[in-house]
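// run 5 | inverse folding | seed 20
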């Protein structure tokens, strides 16, 4: 099996989070990649809200989960 390396391409999956748009919910779903997020959100919409969310909407609403950094919030007393 041949894997095509792509020098310069960053193929690291960025964890994504999606906040449920339902007013009284606010549930935040986090998944390792977009496909997993879409599946998880649709599962949530189906089971909790008996509704359905379009993949496009999920992808559009999803935000990348930033890694915790101490760069900016480094002024913590400790
Ligand atoms: Zn919800």
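// decoded
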């Amino acid at each position: 099996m041949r894997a095509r390396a792509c020098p310069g391409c960053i193929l690291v999956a960025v964890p994504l989070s999606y906040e449920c748009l339902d007013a009284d919910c606010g549930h935040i779903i986090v998944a390792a990649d977009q496909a997993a997020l879409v599946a998880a959100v649709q599962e949530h919409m189906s089971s909790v809200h008996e509704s359905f969310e379009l993949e496009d909407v999920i992808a559009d609403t999803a935000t990348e989960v930033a890694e915790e950094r101490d760069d900016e919030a480094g002024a913590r007393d400790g």
